[in-house]
């Protein structure tokens, strides 16, 4: 017994599958083209660690090597008199000074401070990173300029937003 199949239906189904498969392969190829290397991932992680460890270690040079000179760190803050929230900004020079002065007595952090670095995304020469510390989180943007990964943006908040 010979069964006759309608080839026009099969061809139509094949065409419908071709487009999504083609798009998938194109996207997959794009990630390969701009995918990070292991050394990029390690360098990005080191930028985030230098950022936090510079405060642990009272080492302003460690912070300075991780940050672009025009880095900006932001958070929301609450005016104690009015109760209104506003955007508070800190720049590289103030962060270098913080790294130099904040933990001089060694009492600002636990003995084994939490410093979990999570790379959220890397694309070519930009990366988004989440740093989970003891009392706060930092979302970071890191850029590769002239072959070096540098911190350019930080958005942070305390774990308990009432502390702002």
User: Nearest-angstrom radius of gyration?
Assistant: 24 Å
Give the DSSP E fraction (strand runs of 2 or more residues). Answer: 25-35%
CATH architecture of the largest domain: Roll
- CATH topology value of the largest domain: Nuclear Transport Factor 2, Chain: A
Biggest sheet layout: 6 strands, mixed
Percent of residues in helices comes to: 25-40%
How would you classify the helix and strand content by structural class? alpha+beta
Helix count, DSSP H or I runs of 4 or more residues: 4
The CATH C-level name of the largest domain is: Alpha Beta
Q: Tell me the overall shape.
A: globular
Number of strands: 6
* N-C termini distance: 80 Å
- What is the residue-averaged pLDDT? 87
SSE topology:
Elements: H1 7-34, H2 38-56, H3 60-66, E1 67-78, E2 85-91, H4 92-101, E3 115-123, E4 126-133, E5 136-145, E6 148-158
Parallel strand pairs: 1-6
Antiparallel strand pairs: 1-2, 3-4, 4-5, 5-6
Helix pairs in contact: 2-3, 3-4
């Amino acid at each position: 017994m010979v069964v006759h199949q309608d080839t026009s239906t099969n061809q139509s189904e094949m065409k419908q599958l071709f487009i999504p498969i083609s798009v998938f392969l194109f996207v997959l190829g794009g990630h390969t083209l701009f995918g990070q290397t292991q050394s990029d991932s390690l360098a990005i992680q080191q930028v985030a660690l230098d950022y936090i460890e510079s405060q642990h270690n009272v080492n302003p040079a460690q912070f300075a090597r991780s940050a672009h000179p025009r880095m900006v760190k932001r958070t929301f803050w609450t005016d104690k008199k009015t109760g209104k929230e506003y955007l508070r900004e800190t720049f590289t020079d103030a962060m270098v000074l913080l790294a130099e002065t904040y933990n001089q007595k060694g009492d600002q952090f636990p003995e084994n401070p939490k410093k979990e670095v999570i790379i959220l995304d890397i694309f070519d020469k930009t990366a988004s990173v989440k740093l989970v510390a003891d009392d706060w989180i930092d979302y970071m943007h890191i850029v590769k300029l002239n072959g070096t990964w540098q911190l350019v943006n930080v958005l942070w908040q305390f774990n308990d937003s009432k502390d702002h």
